[in-house]
Amino acid sequence: MSAVLLSLDSVTTYYGQMRILEGISLQVGDGELVCLLGGNASGKSTTLKTILGIVRPRAGHVLLGGEDVTDWPVPQRIASGLAIVPENRRLFGDMTVRENLELGAVLRKGHNLDEDFERVHALFPRLLERRSQLAGTLSGGEQQMVAVGRALMSRPRLLLMDEPSMGLSPALVQQNFKIIKDIHESGVAVLMVEQNAAMALSIADRGYVLSTGEIALEGAASELLRSEELKRAYLGR
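Above: the chain sequence. Below: its structure as tokens.
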């Protein structure tokens, strides 16, 4: 693996008195694509919230680029290179596509954003056509493009993605994963939470499998695809 960009070290996270994560450790290398798999209520989204700082762990540490960010607030983590494409996209529906994209660069105010818009429009030509349209009037696939583009506007070192295939048609799922692969190949590290295990592992370098808040399996994506335990638990065969 390349130099470690993100590291979770024995992280335990609670919601109130309910333990959600129990001593999990995982890593994402610089420029690496890692998927985090697991069923409902396994702790996947909580892991992302812990990385972002929305939830603070009761034990363990979160490191970004070798620096302990466990006590950092969310804006400081984002300014240090984190960005997220949230579950269900969470756009500002009464704002235009262009305005939603600009929000991704809010911590970079004062910078010329032309190059960033060009990069997003090269990935998603449809968004150039729709730039003045209200985001809430877009199709689900187009809204997903805006959500990804908004995250890329911050020029992240690590892109977090929470269920990127949720609610998309099979054709759009294929298109979406191709775009994720393109983003990864451009040098951006990606940590992707996904229930579509086969699709996620087909483009990932490595993967982790969460079960009731603990890491049950980990390894190279190709090895996990061949894992009989994973097939039984998550691929339904």
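The mean pLDDT is 89.
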